[in-house]
């Protein structure tokens, strides 16, 4: 039995994810189950959302989970065991208006983890994707005309 260890991670900050994974592996030796359950979204018309914000959402919802998964994966492969779960969104299957960046990032994540599932079968590593419908999450209300502040976390 291990005492829990709190490790803070901003999943949209790709540069620190490998170090966090290394810290976890150094502390516990392995990861049996990795649950990717972080997300960021914004509501707004495509032409109103900056490319910078589109990239931030892609970092949090796509590059973040795959970077963390790739950092943990070699340990699972060497042990020939493990489970990886992506908590995604129904919008990874169908898009709705005013959520283009979010839906695109979730579609990309589904594609990546579908491919990973097939590749990891030979190593007895299970890969699952969960796509729940709409959930209530924390929301900051934006100032009028400030789409950058309309981020759900």
From TrEMBL:
Cited PROSITE patterns: ADH_SHORT
GO molecular function, one term: oxidoreductase activity, acting on the CH-OH group of donors, NAD or NADP as acceptor
UniProt keyword list: NAD, NADP, Oxidoreductase, Signal
InterPro entries in the record: NAD(P)-bd_dom_sf, Sc_DH/Rdtase_CS, SDR_fam, SDR_family_member_7C
Domain of life: Eukaryota
GO terms, biological process: intracellular calcium ion homeostasis
Family: Belongs to the short-chain dehydrogenases/reductases (SDR) family.
PANTHER family per the UniProt record, alphabetical: DEHYDROGENASE_REDUCTASE SDR FAMILY MEMBER 7C (PTHR44668:SF2), PTHR44668
Protein name: Dehydrogenase/reductase SDR family member 7C
Organism: Ptilonorhynchus violaceus
């Amino acid at each position: 039995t291990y005492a829990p260890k709190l490790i803070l991670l901003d999943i949209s900050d790709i540069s620190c994810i490998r170090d966090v994974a290394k810290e976890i592996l150094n502390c516990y030796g392995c990861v049996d189950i990795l649950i990717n359950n972080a997300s960021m979204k914004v509501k707004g018309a495509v032409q109103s959302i900056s490319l910078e914000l589109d990239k931030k959402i892609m970092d949090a919802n796509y590059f973040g989970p795959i970077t963390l998964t790739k950092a943990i994966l070699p340990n699972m492969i060497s042990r020939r065991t493990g489970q990886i779960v992506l908590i995604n969104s129904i919008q990874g299957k169908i898009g709705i208006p005013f959520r283009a960046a979010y839906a695109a990032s979730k579609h990309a994540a589904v594609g990546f983890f579908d491919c990973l599932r097939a590749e990891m079968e030979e190593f007895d590593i299970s890969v699952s994707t969960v796509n729940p419908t709409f959930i209530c999450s924390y929301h900051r209300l934006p100032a009028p005309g400030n789409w950058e502040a309309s981020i759900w976390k």
